[in-house]
Write a structure and sequence with these properties.
The protein is built from 8 helices and 9 strands. It is α+β, with helices and mostly antiparallel strands. Strand 5 and strand 6 form a beta hairpin. It comes from Paractinoplanes ferrugineus.
């Protein structure tokens, strides 16, 4: 990376985390240069009029003035997770690093509560591959609305049943999306293929907190990719 590109990248990094500071040592590791080089770059930015300031103390570092940063972005947690899924499909392409950087900036600019919720949702998505099949909107929002769902579901034999479920996670397989949920009928975790769900009713009931353990998914862990917003 040449110096001009690095100066621009420094500003964008500080903008992404503002008003929090980044230490010179952290920035040096991020851009693979010496601490002294970072200090010279920061000095050059300051002399050019960029509002970069040094915060003293053990947790201090360099920060960008808040007036120079972007306002919070009105992306919803679901929209941020959707972008992370799209990013997953770019893995191995020349654009993956740039797209990942864009996503980090987006999440950093979101309202803190929305960003936390987006990270929580992303942690409940596992991908083996990213299916192209579309999911009905009420199912797609299953993790964000945090309500008990009443679904009509056909098993592999075609037998229909009505279930009340507490959504826990999504798993993307080569051909289908699966919704992992606590099934109140079976009193255990069950995996529902989304194309077999013919009807969805969102109830007013908020389910109790439940954690999904890796052993409850019948997919080898080394085949799954965790969705990340970082």
């Amino acid at each position: 990376m040449n110096r001009t590109d690095r100066l621009y990248a420094l500003v964008e990094e500080l903008r992404a985390v503002a008003p929090r500071p980044r230490s010179a040592r952290w920035l040096a590791g991020r851009f693979e240069v010496s601490v002294r080089t970072v200090e010279r770059d920061i000095s050059a930015l300051q002399q050019s009029g960029t509002p970069v300031y040094a915060e003293p103390g053990r947790t201090g570092g360099y920060c960008l003035d808040k007036s120079h940063t972007l306002p919070p972005v009105n992306f919803t947690p679901s929209e941020a997770v959707a972008m992370a899924v799209a990013l997953h499909r770019l893995a191995g392409s020349p654009f993956h690093a740039a797209a990942a950087a864009a996503l980090r900036k987006l999440v950093a600019a979101m309202h803190p509560g929305d960003a936390d919720r987006a990270r929580e949702m992303a942690a409940r998505v596992r991908l083996v591959e990213t299916p192209s099949v579309e999911i009905p909107r009420l199912l797609a929002d299953a993790l964000s609305i945090r309500r008990v769902l009443r679904i009509s579901y056909a098993d592999r034999a075609g037998t229909d049943s009505v279930r009340e479920i507490e959504p826990l996670a999504f798993v993307g397989m080569p051909a289908y999306w699966y919704l992992v949920a606590w099934c109140r009928l079976r009193r255990s975790v069950r995996v529902f293929r989304t194309d077999r769900i013919s009807a969805v009713v969102v109830t007013a009931e908020e389910p109790p907190p439940r954690e999904l353990t890796p052993g409850e998914l019948d997919v080898p862990g080394d085949r799954m990719s965790a969705l990340s917003l970082a």
